[in-house]
Prior knowledge:
Elements: E1 9-13, H1 25-39, E2 43-47, E3 63-65, H2 71-81, E4 85-87, H3 92-104, H4 107-111, E5 114-115, H5 120-127, H6 129-138, E6 146-149, H7 152-162, E7 167-171, E8 181-183, H8 186-199, E9 205-209, E10 215-223, E11 229-237, E12 250-252, H9 259-276, E13 281-289, E14 296-302, H10 307-316, H11 320-328, E15 355-361, E16 382-388, H12 391-401, H13 423-431, H14 437-446, H15 451-458, H16 462-478, H17 488-496, H18 501-508, H19 512-521, E17 527-530, E18 544-548, E19 562-566, H20 577-592, E20 596-601, E21 616-619, H21 624-634, E22 638-640, H22 646-657, H23 667-674, H24 676-685, E23 693-696, H25 699-709, E24 713-717, E25 727-729, H26 732-745, E26 751-755, E27 761-770, E28 774-785, E29 795-797, H27 804-820, E30 824-834, E31 837-844, H28 851-858, H29 862-870, H30 875-878, E32 884-886, E33 889-895, E34 916-922, H31 925-936, E35 945-949, H32 955-967, E36 971-974, H33 976-984, E37 990-991, H34 1002-1007, E38 1013-1016, H35 1025-1036, E39 1040-1042, H36 1045-1060, E40 1075-1077
Parallel strand pairs: 1-2, 1-4, 2-3, 4-5, 18-21, 19-20, 19-22, 20-21, 35-36, 35-38, 36-37, 38-39
Antiparallel strand pairs: 6-9, 7-8, 7-9, 10-11, 10-13, 11-12, 12-15, 13-14, 15-16, 17-18, 23-26, 24-25, 24-26, 27-28, 27-30, 28-29, 29-33, 30-31, 32-40, 33-34
Amino acid sequence: xxxxxxxxxxxxxxxxxxxxxxxxxxxxxxxxxxxxxxxxxxxxxxxxxxxxxxxxxxxxxxxxxxxxxxxxxxxxxxxxxxxxxxxxxxxxxxxxxxxxxxxxxxxxxxxxxxxxxxxxxxxxxxxxxxxxxxxxxxxxxxxxxxxxxxxxxxxxxxxxxxxxxxxxxxxxxxxxxxxxxxxxxxxxxxxxxxxxxxxxxxxxxxxxxxxxxxxxxxxxxxxxxxxxxxxxxxxxxxxxxxxxxxxxxxxxxxxxxxxxxxxxxxxxxxxxxxxxxxxxxxxxxxxxxxxxxxxxxxxxxxxxxxxxxxxxxxxxxxxxxxxxxxxxxxxxxxxxxxxxxxxxxxxxxxxxxxxxxxxxxxxxxxxxxxxxxxxxxxxxxxxxxxxxxxxxxxxxxxxxxxxxxxxxxxxxxxxxxxxxxxxxxxxxxxxxxxxxxxxxxxxxxxxxxxxxxxxxxxxxxxxxxxxxxxxxxxxxxxxxxxxxxxxxxxxxxxxxxxxxxxxxxxxxxxxxxxxxxxxxxxxxxxxxxxxxxxxxxxxxxxxxxxxxxxxxxxxxxxxxxxxxxxxxxxxxxxxxxxxxxxxxxxxxxxxxxxxxxxxxxxxxxxxxxxxxxxxxxxxxxxxxxxxxxxxxxxxxxxxxxxxxxxxxxxxxxxxxxxxxxxxxxxxxxxxxxxxxxxxxxxxxxxxxxxxxxxxxxxxxxxxxxxxxxxxxxxxxxxxxxxxxxxxxxxxxxxxxxxxxxxxxxxxxxxxxxxxxxxxxxxxxxxxxxxxxxxxxxxxxxxxxxxxxxxxxxxxxxxxxxxxxxxxxxxxxxxxxxxxxxxxxxxxxxxxxxxxxxxxxxxxxxxxxxxxxxxxxxxxxxxxxxxxxxxxxxxxxxxxxxxxxxxxxxxxxxxxxxxxxxxxxxxxxxxxxxxxxxxxxxxxxxxxxxxxxxxxxxxxxxxxxxxxxxxxxxxxxxxxxxxxxxxxxxxxxxxxxxxxxxxxxxxxxxxxxxxxxxxxxxxxxxxxxxxxxxxxxxxxxxxxxxxxxxxxxxxxxxxxxxxxxxxxxxxxxxxxxxxxxxxxxxxxxxxxxxxxxxx
Length: 1078
């Protein structure tokens, strides 16, 4: 059946900001869908609130709206654009839920918009726990015993009926298992159910028998109008049931299924997708098998492109999202070609002759008070993927891709110690799912545990444990040798087992360079194989490679000039999608000027690892050994390290020492900006100021220097990502409490102590330079005062409170720094302004996380221009020689994962904790801020009660805010101190009890829906326990919260705009050219 001609335009809803459970894999799927539908001649209308995505670049859709993902805003877009159809299945849970809400409220019917890809009935059947269960029973499939409940009373009755603990609680229509968990007793059960009911948008949870210890599998399945079904990929969880699949190590294809079990599961998958009614597109179906009895049950399905779809696409080379988009407009699988073979149809099931491993990346260190146990609620912030000829090889490669300091499964590095820890600790780490469990399996082998004992504790399948045991046994054997005594056969075997040269250097008590040289001398060479979807049955036309140690090297030679781009590795807090955006732009730009691009990355979620983004893709760990190997075999003439965040920058000096040509800003300039002494000399030369500072190598000196500088001070480790281990300290007692932590983050590296500029205004400036000309791309003024990490701060572009004279001073300082640091490419400078004096906080001569935001604000692709400049182009030849300032307002707001980490301290500070960002655009600043809040969720209220509690220094300003809120019709609630002050100033206020001083408290009122907004500013570095309880309740119940007084003023402006102004939507294509050229 050919494509539908009755559809003219298609609306795609994106996934919004990056959050735990919904990361950049949906930018990948959305970008693919936009390309696929445009290719077919449809007018593509896109809405997404996340400016850091490739999909929101103006060229990917015909019309691109960066607007909040709410029914109200999307209805305005539908009214303006009149799309023929809505494709709801490519923007994760957010797009699916929003599409269903548009359907339920009659918006789609009102404007005649058809839902394609999955009908509302199919989505409801797949997502609603009870409907899904009944559908499975109808087709004769087994499901876990369960009850769907809508209240705590019903939940108690369900627990009595199921009569067994532990029980699993799964809220309906939530993201990444949010609000769910495993209850081992009645007390835990009531707490998790109450939280799950709160977080479920339909106030419903499933109480289910716990299949703890069972094996878990996923099937990625596609279906078309002709009822042709294919399995794209089977995936097996390394961790048994009880760990969310997003938090589990996963392996593809499934390793431990018998052929019969696989066929039964395949047939069941097709029965599920047919019964649920997903007519076109991809679905992810999860199964569980009891290893004792072989009982197989269906756990759940996602009637959409899922998180695992990106992994399955990268693992097989089969572009699920692209094919799903084409099936949704009428094509059938047999009508579509496989891009990689160009011969086989898409109805030809992919076959792979290698093993793929995915390991999640966690950042528990950002949330020290949170529980790091892995459960059915997802906690990981990213993932790494590796491909190898065997499970052993892919597992070791994946462990070293994580960017945690691990080199693989032992043999040095983090968690690879030569002595096992205490036996009791090993037992605990094996029995309780946690991020380090894989490493403790090795320690268990060292401590003499048998495979049976490890299985009893962890329930990890014995097949996996045997494989890991063989890696460990080889490590022990290698340690018996030196580099000269080891025979070539054993050395080759070690490489085939995935051992890196760094691990071998540890085993042989040698160094990396010596091992590398000796390995090559002996002819143990890295070879590269193609990902071809067909186990080498047909020729592959897309150069998509992974490394191995076989005889055959499949690298296709090319005489073209090549530039390598190093990606950012797995997503984590401090290094997210923004850096991948820059890498993708570099690839597009270099292709435009005739270079072949060679992308090296290990992140399966991103657009950079799509096989058609670059000319050549290498799915490899970002380590010196792996990168050098690709660089030399591809004979690249240069490499870009400045776009992938800290990961490639950490390799820059070593790469240069090995003869690699680093293009753009030199590693020496980057190091000068990082080095306190060298950078101070530059500031002195340029007559620029920085806050008073010292550098300490130990705790005693640190305290002495802090007293010299004078409290408050900013304490921070050097060479870290996302403000890791940073503290603002107000007195000696606080300083003593945290100084150890700062040194522990980067052992043997100095700790920096700066005078903290309290109540200063911070300004981020992004600049591009070609070595001769430097142009400012954008200036972003922080809404919060200094002390909030720039990744977490709300920002306004152009600056909204600074004078023209001060901005001219900033410009002169930026240009001088770019010249002095010999910047060729991008540079980010962080300034602070206090008492009309400009201070330089830090300079990063590389791409920053604000580059995509600034590019969208001014309509100029800065990263593309920078990539061209790095290869020798000049800005004057590229037509960008004057600064452009938007005439409209652009507001950036950060999105936080606090709801995932109950008990974590909820505060804005110098250490970054946000996972994503949104953008608000409008001609009015108040409206732009209100849009940003609506996009970050929850939006600003326009009526109701505001709880106000502020530190003493903010009280005068709080009176003004309260008075204005009362004038807008709000009621003010406060505890004793703030209430007394408001009453003394004749502001009407209702006093509420402090926590522990009677009921109802603020927390009670938040839970009862009686508080619409919280304004709460902490007195010291860390909010008090009762303040944190209030903040936690506000986050859990979607109540808008402001934790700074400047944020509260911005919210006030937003509320006024919402009450007094007409709120409109406008595509970014219509903002283009809306700039003042300076």
